[in-house]
Structure prediction request, 235 residues.
Amino acid sequence: MKKFKLGGTTFLQQIGKPDERGISDSDAFVLVKTDQMLEFYRGLKEHNPKNIMEIGMYEGGSLVWYDKLYKPKKLVGLDLRREPIAALEAYKADHPHIETYYGRYQDKEGTRMAARQHFPTGIDLVVDDASHLYAQTKATFNMLFPMVRAGGHYIIEDWAWSFQPGQQGPDAVWADLPAMGNLALELTIMASQTNVIESVYIDRGLICVKKGAGVFKEEMFDLSGCLRGRELTLL
Ligand SMILES: C[S@@+](CC[C@H](N)C(=O)[O-])C[C@H]1O[C@@H](n2cnc3c(N)ncnc32)[C@H](O)[C@@H]1O
Prediction:
């Protein structure tokens, strides 16, 4: 476990299994990000994201880290966990630009409503670090990507789980579920078809879609017209 400070707050980088992680408290926030991810987010500073939404807060460490790193005007977090994150709620008390939603499933209408309410002029950065499942992640993308402003970024973390050794057997927890890699492929093909996607960056930890000009529509996921009659089979 690594430990570092930013803006007077201590962060504990804990990227192991959930049962090996701690909880955030008044001394330190737990942050589930690799060094490579942290470096990527630091690189986004040059784009100066001021309106930020994160899906999947865990122990609140990432939300507080974005707050220190980007100094946003509005920062919204949403998670299906019902129990409020005590350390984050205490931090929020004197950071009124932060809003948190608990007990919310990422792919339900409440996600779109929260985004509409807090970001009437558009979102600069969305981070989806929630379910890591194909259907839920795609449904969330369909709701939130239209609200990302041109030049803004949409990040999907931990997309590559299905390619890891522990996921190869028939008894793996998500053995019956489609890979998130499907979404990476769809977004990459989509980038060749429309300038609504300016670029797609992929590394082992995350996918980052940069929004281009134009209006995104869910129908853009129908790629049948550019596959030379072939099927895009779900991995
Ligand atoms: C990997 S953790 C997030 C880590 C955090 N972003 C960080 O970097 O420190 C995933 C979080 O997503 C939440 N989550 C999982 N499935 C979800 C869903 N369908 N909708 C909303 N939140 C979900 C979990 O409760 C958990 O808190």
In short: The radius of gyration is 18 Å. The domain at 33-226 is CATH 3.40.50.150 (Rossmann fold). The chain has a mean pLDDT of 97. Residues 181-193 form the longest helix (13 residues).
